[in-house]
Amino acid sequence: MASAISVRALTKKFGDVLALDGAAFTSVRAEEISGRADAAVAASGSRTSWFASQVLVIASAAAAITVAAGIGSGLTAAFPLFEPALLVDGVGAALNVLPALFLMLGLGAAVYGLVPRELPLLWGYLGYVLVAALFSDVLPERFGVLSPFHHTPNLPADSFAPQFMLPVLATVLVFSGAAGFRRRDIGR
Fold it and tell me: Where are the transmembrane segments (predicted)?
């Protein structure tokens, strides 16, 4: 069963690296600054529906890539050992990091919607999350406490409270970003 643990660890690292999905809002902001977003927002009917479509595309892509990474790491572990259960472990580990990944997306949406000029600060936070994830074995445990991936339990977990709280927090952040985007001028 040691190989199942390594599959989980590998997929968790994939999820940590994919925390950069929050940075996708930087490209959305670039579209806005260039003036190309004006027509898209006008065509969508409302600012909220345009904002929601951007968040939905980014979230879908991040989830698909994470699940694909879980399938890939599960297959990589399952085939040489002839243990199909490792494929399930890989997919389960990928699904386990999705709430933290969505929290990172929610943070990106909130920053983009409320204070878009501060998006470069998001890159600093994403760098911190990446360092905390990649060097979690050598850094003190308290170093990663501000990373949502620090609060993702390993499977099997005693408590799934973080798995429920992270999506709730992500939803609040996305709604606050949508409210901020609805009130501000595009391109500002």
Answer: 55-82, 94-115, 122-140, 160-181
